[in-house]
Write a structure and sequence with these properties.
15 helices, membrane, two-stranded antiparallel ribbon, transmembrane, phosphate transmembrane transporter activity, about 80% helix
Length: about 500
């Protein structure tokens, strides 16, 4: 009996010790899990540098190109972690896609967009910010581009860490501007171009928000607030999907596929109209079949918008990969060309290995670090459902096309996030309007307290202020960082 009691106590002690070890193992796994992503990212950066060393190891300035390849890979990782959230966040927030599904679709579409339709020629002086003759020698140009890459990558990394989606294009612009000023003075900067870029800080989110709010108003007025929602959806959802298809056809022809095929605006418009009408006619029987048996309530409408939303997110990712991969590898390609004797003002072809670094880096950055910003854009600013997320996606494409037609410089990041804010603020306004109408119809209804009114706000003000502040400081922050890097290089070089 005593022996059995001893064994029972011994087993109990052993179970308790094993439990402590299990808890310790779980805690260790929880603490080290974030380090896995950083480890994989570091391996990718090292592999990019090794690839540059193997391909260009016997050429002059090989070490400079190796360092530039590492910085380009680092920038590509940050673009994937930050910028891609604007395309996939609404679909995830609306629960049309899981996080894993969104990352898989975005990674495939971003890579295809970068490799198949990415621009094969870039200007060595990004976007005309610095005059071609102001940086003088190739060595000065190379160090300026290195400083621009490093400063923009560091800032985008910081913005991702604080949970602020920022424009990677603006980050590169600021880096190039700051490096140019530090190298050749304020006269090196094309200030009218910088003024237009600064104007886009206001233009982009306002346009995106207004268009998204207008789309949501149309859906509410024509479908959601109708007595027979399903009948209204059968009429208008095919039209809306046709508009989306035509818009994205125009977007891809004019922006995403510009490196593959160049067409006139008239031809692009004809293609867009043809695609839109074809999809509209195709969707009429599809929506009729999908809507059979659905209850006459708002929740049923979500089913009809889910697939168009997923397709729009995929197309936005393809176009983003085609356009914004240059933010990571444009300066790198310019450094490679300059190190091989190309002129400072020349246009340079992007080698395939450089394009591959950008494409794979964006996908890795999305997979490793993207979920944080996807959740921010998709659910933490305001609550999205498939109809609202559809408005955000369509607004992004419509606004970019409208801005291009008007010649306005805009940021796709600012447009997409501005559209999310536009949807949220419109919902607040619509909720207040309906509440006022209810009070007029029922004067005896008790008034809401100020605390309750603040609680019912549908846009989180803290995120709004953080994101707007990050937008405002992006260009001056990266410019200052780049100037500091150039000064540091001069000090080390003596």
């Amino acid at each position: 009996m005593a022996n059995r009691d001893f064994q029972a106590r011994h087993l109990e002690t052993l179970d308790r010790d094993l439990g402590r070890f299990s808890n310790l193992e779980l805690a260790t796994g929880y603490v080290t899990r974030p380090m896995v992503g950083f480890g994989i990212a570091l391996v990718f950066v090292v592999l990019a540098a090794l690839a540059a060393a193997l391909l260009l190891g016997q050429t002059p300035n090989a070490m400079v190109v190796v360092v530039a390849a590492a910085l380009g890979a680092y920038m590509a990782l940050n673009i994937g972690a930050n910028d891609v959230a604007n395309n996939m966040g609404p679909a995830v927030g609306a629960k049309a896609l899981t996080m894993g599904g969104a990352i898989l679709i975005a990674a495939v579409c971003e890579t295809l967009g970068a490799l198949l339709a990415g621009s094969d020629v870039v200007d060595t002086i990004s976007k005309g910010i610095i005059g071609p003759g102001t940086l003088g020698t190739p060595e000065q140009f190379i160090w300026a581009m290195m400083a621009a890459l490093l400063s923009s990558a560091l800032w985008v990394n910081c913005a991702t860490w604080i949970g602020a989606p920022v424009s990677t294009t603006h980050a590169v612009v600021g880096g190039v501007m700051g490096a140019g000023i530090a190298t050749a003075g304020f006269g090196a900067v094309a200030w009218p171009t910088m003024g237009a870029i600064a104007a886009s800080w206001v233009i982009s989110p306002l346009l995106g928000g207004i268009v998204a709010a207008g789309l949501l108003w149309f859906i509410k007025a024509r479908i959601i607030y109708r007595p027979d929602k399903i009948a209204a959806a059968r009429l208008w959802v095919p039209v809306l999907v046709g508009v989306m298809a035509g818009t994205f056809a125009l977007y891809l022809v004019m922006k995403g596929l510009k490196a593959v095929v160049t067409v006139s605006p008239v031809v692009a418009g004809v293609v867009a109209i043809g695609v839109g009408v074809a999809v509209w006619l195709l969707m009429i029987p599809v929506i009729r079949r999908q809507s059979k048996g659905l209850e006459n309530r708002n929740k049923s409408l979500k089913v009809l918008f889910a697939i168009p939303l997923i397709v729009s997110a995929a197309l936005l990712s393809f176009a983003h990969g085609a356009n914004d991969v240059a933010n990571a590898i444009g300066p790198l390609a310019a450094i490679v060309a300059a190190s091989q004797g190309a002129g400072v003002g020349d246009a340079v072809a992007i080698p395939f290995w450089v394009m591959l670094i950008g494409a794979v880096g964006i996908s890795f950055g999305l997979f490793l670090f993207g979920p944080k910003l996807i959740r921010m854009v998709g659910s933490q600013i305001t609550k999205l459902n498939p109809m609202r997320a559809y408005c955000v996606a369509l607004s992004a494409a419509l606004t970019v096309i409208l801005a291009s037609w008007l010649g306005l410089p805009v940021s796709s990041t600012h447009i997409a996030v501005g559209a999310v804010f536009g949807v949220g603020f419109f919902r607040e306004w619509d909720s207040e309007r309906r509440l006022r109408n209810m009070r007029m119809a029922l004067p005896s209804r008790p008034q809401l307290s100020p605390e309750e009114r603040r609680r019912r706000k549908l846009v989180r003000r803290s995120h709004f202020m953080t994101i707007v502040a990050a937008w405002i400081v992006t260009v001056p922050m990266t410019a200052g960082l780049a100037a500091a890097v150039v000064a540091g290089i001069r000090t080390v070089a003596g």
